[in-house]
Amino acid sequence: MKTLVVGVGGMTNGGKSTLSTSLHQLMPNSCIIAQDSYFKDESVVPEDSNGFKQYDTLDALHMDTMMSDVDSWRRDPESFLRQRGLSPERTAPSVDEEVFVLIVEGFLIFNYRPLNELFDKRYFMEIPYDVCKRRRSSRVYTPPDPPGYFDGHVWPMYLKNRQEMESMVSGIVFLDGLKLKEELLAAVCEDVCQEIESVREKD
Predict the structure, then answer these.
(1) What is the pLDDT of residues 120-138, one digit of tens each?
(2) Could you give the CA distance from residue 119 to residue 47 in angstroms, rounded to a whole number?
(3) Cα separations (Å) of 123 from 1, 3, 5, 184?
């Protein structure tokens, strides 16, 4: 049994969840771990001087729990799939050649070193400021974004986190989130499939 870990990062509303879900649907023996599932309770997320909740930081996330789940998958991906109601498929001549794929999706996955070190492939979805702001304003969040939150916190933190990411991580493929979803999916799928074949051929 062999494994491949794919990271799909990107800015808020950039299309990373859509890409991850579509990739999962096309990839046999794959599953998704989404960073958004690990936010701490609102009551323990600190506020800045403007009263904005500091959600766009690693401190707002239970990264230890997320890493525990990733490690569980790495130890036994087949059992991990079954626990999530997914059925492992036989796609290779032997069990030894079977490749299980973990898709890790989130806005700060590359900024957390212990997690970033596990990725075999890294993709980052990006869209322009105006598109991002428009998409963000059309979505309903719990708790809801207060007035001025995007310009006062979300976008500045995205720029800060991205700068940090680019200074510490290499090998990221940047994707234009304005392209057709089908076009992006086809390109990433081809890339990942080539990587699967490469992993399968290794001793």
Answers:
(1) 999 999 999 999 999 999 9
(2) 32
(3) 24, 18, 12, 11
CA dihedral 136, 138, 139, 141 (to 10 degrees): 80
Whole-angstrom CA distances from 129 to 113, 134, 177 are 27, 9, 12
Against a cut of 0.85, is the pTM above it?
yes
CB neighbour class for 8 (10 Å; exposed up to 12, middle 13-18, buried from 19): buried
Q: State how far the Cα of 123 lies from the Cα of 176, in Å rounded to an integer.
A: 10
Q: What is the pLDDT of residue 203?
A: 65
CA-angle at 29, arms to 24 and 35, nearest 5°: 50
Which residue in 178, 125, 142 sits closest to 55, CA to CA? 142
Catalytic positions, written as ranges: 36
* Burial of 182 per CB tally in 10 Å (0-12, 13-18, 19+): exposed
**DSSP structural state of residue 151:** I
For the chain, the first-to-last Cα distance in angstroms comes to 11
Q: 69 with 101: CB under 8 angstroms?
A: no
- Distance CA(64)–CA(54), nearest Å, equals 18
Return left, alpha or beta for 90; rule: phi > 0 is left, psi -120 to 50 is alpha, else beta.
beta
Query: Pick from 188, 202, 168: which is nearest to 8 by CA?
Result: 188
